[in-house]
What we know:
This protein is an all-alpha fold. Helices cover 65% and strands 0% of the residues.
Amino acid sequence: MDTNGISDLYASIFSGTTGLIVLVFYILVAIGLWKVFTKAGYPGILAIIPIVNVVFLVKIAGMSGWLALLYLIPLVNIVFGIIVAIKLGDRFGKGGLFSFFLLFVFPYIGYLILGFGDARYSRV
């Protein structure tokens, strides 16, 4: 197995312009999640901790945090991600199209809209 090719791939992804773009998108999602967590009554700092943020996002969507383990199963994680996005959008009074496109497909836009917009979190 050629591990040098893999390390070159990682080096090219996380350096230069591509790495900067990935970092900007991560920061946008973290800022939006911080506000979403705050609106839902959780500490915003949880949004920047990997894995923990997924567990609490599932809890905010109204499901058990243990279900976050479904993200580890290939193909199931895609379906579960869509379900979490739709349920999360429903908790904030948003429709299915908003949830799918702006929370699943373009989360860096959707979480900013939820966090900084006038959407209110409801535990119902």
